[in-house]
Specification:
- By secondary structure, the protein is mainly alpha-helical.
- The chain has a domain of 116 residues.
- Helices cover 47% and strands 10% of the residues.
- It contains eleven helices and six strands.
- It has a two-stranded parallel sheet with strand order 1-4.
- The protein is globular and about 55 Å long.
- One of its GO terms (molecular function) is transferase activity.
- It comes from Desulfobacter postgatei 2ac9.
- Keywords: Transferase.
- It holds the Pfam family Sulfotransfer_3.
């Protein structure tokens, strides 16, 4: 979206809008939006997804785009690019003062789930799969499946047929899509590696949630 003439995008590493990958205060974000000449100002606020409903309430004309990717590919990618997977869960359980956004809006039921697997001895791949579950279950916890201001789309469908996938998103935003934005979108990362070994119980949680998400997508492209 940052290649469109109609949009101005702030990615999570952009220090103008984010502080340590978290959106700055709503009042400051409102000023960034007010000064922009773009039709749509977009924020890649992944670390704020647990607060999407409150953001939509604060910004009355705002819309949300929730994109989910299959947990196997997310786990494989995360294991390559990050190191602290089990540590993420440890902080949530034993150092809540350091957890910050990671602990926001996490239910007691899900905290108990983390405790259970941590106590039993969880590996890095299963830790990252559990994190995928914790982050994406927030979509339903916030009842975003009933919110007309939010669109849910599957990453794999978006990259498999980007012209159709992005067109539906731009229609949702009520702006024209520039065809060139799809020129560098490819599906080569989909199922690129062997599925990781995940604790069966966690894998079942992820599979069930993945199917729930698919059933609520707004995609018009065939599922892959």
């Amino acid at each position: 979206m940052n290649r469109s003439f109609h949009t101005e995008c702030f990615l999570e590493e952009d220090e103008e809008a984010f502080s340590n990958y978290v959106l700055k205060e709503k009042e400051f974000i409102a000023k960034l939006i007010a000064r922009s000449n773009a039709k749509v100002v977009a924020f890649k606020a992944i670390s704020d997804s647990q607060n999407l409903i409150s953001l939509l309430d604060y910004f009355p004309t705002a819309k949300g785009i929730w994109i989910f990717r299959h947990f196997n590919d997310v786990v494989n990618s995360s294991l390559r690019n990050f190191t602290e997977h089990k540590r993420y869960l440890y902080i949530m359980l034993f150092e809540p003062e350091k957890a910050g956004w990671r602990l926001q809006n996490v239910t007691q039921e899900n905290l108990d789930l983390i405790k259970k697997f941590y106590k039993e001895g969880i590996d890095d791949a299963s830790s990252r799969a559990l994190i995928w579950y914790l982050r994406n279950v927030l979509f339903f916890q916030q009842k975003l499946d009933f919110n007309q201001k939010v669109i849910l789309t599957k990453y794999e469908n978006l990259v498999a047929d980007p012209e159709i996938g992005f067109e539906s998103i731009f229609q949702f935003l009520k702006i024209n899509m520039d065809k060139k934005i799809t020129n560098t979108v490819y599906a080569t990362s989909v199922r690129k590696n062997t599925p990781p070994e995940i604790i069966p119980e966690i894998k079942a949680l992820c599979e069930n949630l993945h199917q729930q998400l698919i059933s609520h997508t707004n995609d018009v492209t065939p599922h892959i």
